[in-house]
Amino acid sequence: MSSNPNTPERKSIDLAAASANLAHRDGKRFWQSLEELSETKEYREFLEHEFPHDTAKDPEGIDRRDVLKLAAASAALAGLSACTKLPTEKIVPYVKPPEEIIPGRPLFYATSMQLAGVATGLLVESNMGRPTKIEGNPEHPGSLGGTDVFAQASVLTLYDPDRSQTVIHEGRISDWDPFAVAMTNMRGQQSPKGPGLRILTETVTSPSLAAHVRAVLKQFPEAKWHQYEPCGRDNVREGAKLAFGKPVNPVYKFDKADVIVSLDADFLTCGAGHVRYTRDFSSRRALDTPSANPNRLYVVESMPSSTGAMADHRKPARASEIGGFAQRLAAEVGVASANGGGTNSQNISADWTRAVAKDLQQHRGSSLVIAGEEQPPYVHALAHAMNAALGNVGKTVYYTDPLETNPIDGMESLRDLANDMKAGKVDALLILGGNPVYDAPVDFDFGPALLNVKLRIHSGLYYDETGELCHWHVPATHYLESWGDARAYDGTIGIIQPLIAPLYQGCHSPYEILGLLGNDAGKSNHDGVRDYWAGQRPEKDKAFEDLWERSLHDGVMTGTALPAINVAARTDFAKPPNTQSAGSNTAAASDLEISFRPDPSILDGRFANNGWLQETPKPNTRLTWDNAAMVSPATAQHLNITTGDYVTLQLNGHETKAGVMIVPGHADSSVTLHLGYGRRRAGKVGTGTGFNANFIRNSTTPWAATGLHIEKTGEEYYFAVTQHQYIIDRQGQTFEEESAAAFHRDLIQVATLEEFRANPRFAQDPQEEPTPGLSLYPGFKYDGYAWGMSIDLNKCVGCNACVVACQSENNIAVVGKKQVMLGRAMHWIRVDTYFRGGLENPEMYYEPMPCMQCENAPCEVVCPVGATTHSPEGLNEMTYNRCVGTRYCSNNCPYKVRRFNFFLFSDWQTPSLYGLRNPNVTVRSRGVMEKCTYCVQRINAAKIHSEEANQTIKDGEIVTACQGACPADAIVFGNINDPNSRVSKLKAQSRNYRLLAELNTKPRTSYLARVRNPNPEIHE
Amino acid sequence: MAQIFHHSTNVLSRLSIYGGVFIVALLGAALYAIELSPWYTDVHVSREQPVPFSHKHHAGELGIDCRYCHTSVEKSSFAGVPPTQTCMTCHSQIWTNSAMLEPVRASYRDDKSISWTRVNALPDFVYFDHSIHVSKGIGCTTCHGQIAEMPLTYRAGTLYMSWCLDCHRQPEKYVRPKSQVFNPNYQVPANQEQLGRELVKEYKIQSLQNCSVCHR
Fold first, then answer.
1. Interchain contact A736–B (C-beta under 8 A)
2. What range defines the domain where residue A874 resides?
3. DSSP per-residue letters across A355-388
4. Which of residues 86-105 of B touch A (CB under 8 A)?
5. Which is more confident, A21 or A859?
């Protein structure tokens, strides 16, 4: 950052200045945000002050009398605050103790959570019967111990006070019994075959739930079962049908792939199997030695994603151009029928395509082409054909029968339903989950059409936009409250078992509701699931009992993965499809395109009321609490719009309003708007955040459409972006370019594989290492354990699972959008994002930042009350009950990892949230500093356990929350005094480096530098 | 001009200056006394309970082991308060008509917990663990006092941080052989200092005093 004091302070982003600033540099410097490059006033404030909008700094000044008054008052209060008597507490023991529960000791149960029907196996921590923390299930193929943000945050949804709690009939509180009567009446009123009865569900992979639906359909043979998922796998299914003539489920083996081409597929963040895929992908990025052979990833995408950031070569391309690129790539790798097709996009040269194709062909059988779920079926079919042509089938990809029990095209299914509703053919509609009034495409007019239905029944976690329009609303059980089953990405069955009885009496599972329609009224959902499997499995009686118990314990039913099937890819599909879908090559380059994407935090809106997810900075943009009309810098200039402009987006006669955000690396002539925002009835947290993309989303072009018009409204919109907050001031670089060149290496260290092999120690600079004994302080001796952490930047995919896991484990408060804008988000670990290169397609890098736990910690020496101290094991302890909130420690922290409770951010009022909290971590009050402790509660628990057993703590016994959640296995924690521990071995690797090592802080958290593996034949 | 203040006011001003110091000191002493008084610390103050349970009778006279009721003391941070079922193991057979025990029977009958008043309480920001203390040779009575002589249970120590640190700084003064941990009538031997030092070594007792041991 070469900020020149003479440049005028800019209020907002100035792209010309940013480009000039970039050109001024040698192109190798890292930068963090457009605000940095434009040197805006806000950026400078965040750089210079830890907490820029400091209330304590009164611009009017403060006079002597006020100081004395405040000093006297605080002295008096400080004395008095210690004089409270402990309140009398009650102890309420069990009458009859449940087996297994030992008060004070957590229990773990295996279960599964599904997104769009695909399950991730979990182990859920239960404290005295309260589920409090989600971990991955190492035995589940969809997890292998890792999790994602959605699983981590799902426990907050369980305790969400805005969940619906009672059965509602026409807007009034009702009960299950009247509902059951109404359902029985409805059954009686249906004509015998029930042509007017419709059931709408989300994607169902659960065999037992499908059996329940089919039982109803058997009674009413003309009734229909519709499935709809706003962010479903329709294109995957239809693409497979196009290629193979039938719907199959592709399963990828990223651990076997040397060369991967992603056609707009963000396979590391969402979609079937993304947690497992991240683990497999990252396993190929471990570089223990320079001779290791990492994979190479090519990504062509419109919106910069986590997957794009991990790419060795990334090309921004509009969603509609990707089909053309796929076709040319297919022709190059020898898919005969693809010859001659495909238009060129402005960014992707024929040479580039040829080089990629060559790389693929040199890795026949160990390469992989994957198409994104948002790409049209045609692109999927091309990807399948390429994998077949490259001999990858059976090696890096195999096919199974579909995961869905009834694989249908969700969009068409909902269209049929909407048409039938409009035609008045639907007498009764049972909506089991989902929120179609909010998320159905605009051309279906779903809301008005729904009103034509005589009896509308909705079951969902929230009394939402759809529930509001229905006669009956039945609160659904959360997955932590009910029984069920679901298939993992490879088909493995995981049993969903409840951790807690439904929190509210009104909550019922779909099994029970369907039971009222079938012949199973009154049957519990446990029996519904168990009886189904008892009927399906060959094991009987005792053998089945054993199998069932084992499946519950392990979280998976062993041997239920779907077998690979032999399918041959057809080649006669390969003409551009006749639809107006995004795959068509007809769109002129000048037309503005809009693409819709599931939001990386709240997906299709189902997590809109989850504060943890809303406040998680989204990958690359680091935007919180909103979505935005995201455009590239060039397009913003072309359209004369900039970040913060409030605009109208018009598409095919429909419109929505949105704030504009300039995103470096976005494809030109394209706007990305994430789904899930603009909810009208999400709850206290989610209502009114962001902009509703469904207002302009059309069923024929659900993912990308051309013909967008943007009009400025003249108003401004303010986003809460954390990207330019907590910036580390690299001193010495500020004004003097010479010293900058001589002094500093960047906070993030990157080399190419070639450079790494030539100089394995590229990340370390011996000159930068301070001489021993430089400190004025005597230094500590660490005789026993010495805790340390290693974070592999080559593996980290920036998915934020660690951020939310930390929030869940450590009772970290949500602060809200305004406070985030003021730089007061409380996350103890953040994922810093760095860019390098030009605005049009910069390289992107992630760097998770927990507390560095310095051995010479600058924070410790400035605390006037001894609230932050050094432990004999090297932790920088934070003692909340001692902290008086001077914030000196934070001011002195070069890494900016300390967080201050400016207000009472923790919710101490809402009873349902009491259950959520980790009982082993203090819930902080206002005026208290807090920070990462390396999960000291877990360290203490392990130490007590080991001391009692008279052993030392084994390596890997303590897993920090961030480490446990990481799907990429990028974070490793352990004892650095043990040379054989995993963390010691990682720290001994040549890529190891420490941040700001020259400050002699001796941080315990160190990083393994990123190594890119570019194709030597591509010169850019 | 005549003097405004009479000569005697000098004495008054001196008195008030000296007095000020004494008053402040006295006030401090008074506050300190209050802080250590049973009114504030609840030490030796029996709490009213729904059933007047006597540790003296059960642990002292009958000799029931501590762990018969406080089952998780060796496994968990929390020693455990017995469920009604534990009371009923005996009291379904003896004293079945006692009026005093009616709340226990009612609890068992109606499946409603008995709500005991907590005697030994720590602030919520303190994380104490029973299991590690008993496994390192700290006896129940070291902290909980002569429980076998308490007809109604009371707090035996202030449970202040300084009280904890007394032992954490000098565990040899308090540690006892593991076999004696649950003995409510254990008497501190004359050679405690010497025995204590040996036991500290044998049990590998660490004198942990850093903050995050208890605060997090």
1. no
2. 750-1012
3. HHHHHHHHTTTSEEEEE-TTS-HHHHHHHHHHHH
4. none
5. A859
Please tell me the distance in Å from B210's CA to the nearest CA on chain A. Answer: 6
Which amino acid does the sequence have at A660? V
How far is it, in rounded angstroms, from Cα A841 to Cα A315?
A: 7
Each residue of A666-678: b (16+ CB within 10 Å) or e?
A: bbbbbbbbbbbbb
Lowest mean pLDDT among A84-88, A163-167, A619-623, A874-878: A84-88
Nearest CA in chain A to B126: A922
Spatial separation of the C-alpha atoms in residues A836 and A832, rounded to whole Å: 13
Are residues B215 and A105, on separate chains, in Cβ contact within 8 Å?
no
Residues A550 and A644 in one domain: no
Q: Compute CA distances A493 → A115, A137, A315, A526, A555, whole Å.
A: 14, 13, 38, 16, 9
The whole-angstrom distance between A510's CA and the closest CA on chain B is: 31
Q: What is the DSSP string of A272-295?
A: TTHHHHHHHHHHTT--SSTT----
Please state the pTM of the whole predicted model. Answer: 0.91
User: What is the tally of structural domains in chain A?
Assistant: 5
CATH code for the domain of A213: 3.40.50.740
A168-169, strands of its sheet edge to edge = A172-173, A168-169, A472-475, A455-460, A428-432, A197-201, A224-227
3-state secondary structure A832-851: EEEEECCCCCCEEEEEEECC
CB contacts, 8 Å: B127 with chain A: 920, 937, 940
A102 to B85: CB separation less than 8 angstroms, yes or no: no
Cα distances (Å, whole numbers) of residue A681 to A91, A469, A629: 40, 12, 22
Yes or no, beta carbons of A881 and B123 under 8 Å apart: yes
Q: Per-residue pLDDT tens for B21-60?
A: 888 899 999 988 888 888 888 888 898 899 999 999 999 9
CA A556 – CA A703 distance, rounded (Å): 34
Partner B, chain A 61-120, Cβ-Cβ below 8 Å: 85-86, 88-97, 102-105
Q: Is the Cβ pair A920, B127 closer than 8 Å? A: yes
Say whether both A47 and A179 belong to one domain: no
pLDDT of residue A1001 exceeding 90: no
Q: Which of residues 839-878 of A touch B (CB under 8 A)?
A: 869-872, 875, 877
A&B contacts, CB < 8 Å: 118
CB A873 within 8 A of CB A890: no
> Do residues A835 and A863 share a domain?
yes
The residue out of A682, A701, A721 marking a domain boundary is A721
| CB-based contacts of B93, cutoff 8 Å, min separation 6 | none
CB contact under 8 A, A937 and B40: no
What is the tens place of the pLDDT at every residue in A452-492? 999 999 999 999 999 999 999 999 999 999 999 999 999 99
Looking at the partner chain, which of A85, A922, A947 has a beta carbon nearest the beta carbon of B216?
A922
Tokens of A525: 């959902």
Which one of B136, B161, B211, B214 would you mutate to disrupt binding with A, by most A Cβ within 10 Å of its Cβ? B211
User: Are A472 and A168 contacting, i.e. CB atoms less than 8 angstroms apart?
Assistant: yes
ipTM: 0.90
Q: Looking at the structure, tell me whether residues A284 and A338 fall in a common domain.
A: yes
Total residue count of chain A as it appears in this document: 1020
B48 at interface of A, judged by CB pairs closer than 8 A: no
Give the nearest partner residue to B212 out of A85, A95, A871, using CB atoms. A871
Distance of alpha carbon A176 from alpha carbon A182, whole angstroms: 10
CATH number (domain holding residue A847): 3.30.70.20
A-chain residues within 8 Å CB-CB of B107? Answer: 95
The answer to whether the CB of A530 falls within 8 A of the CB of A485 is no
Are residues B81 and A950, on separate chains, in Cβ contact within 8 Å?
A: no
Instruction: Verify whether the Cβ–Cβ distance A92 to B212 is below 8 Å.
Output: no
pLDDT in tens, A905-915: 999 899 999 99
Range of the domain at B128: 73-81+118-216
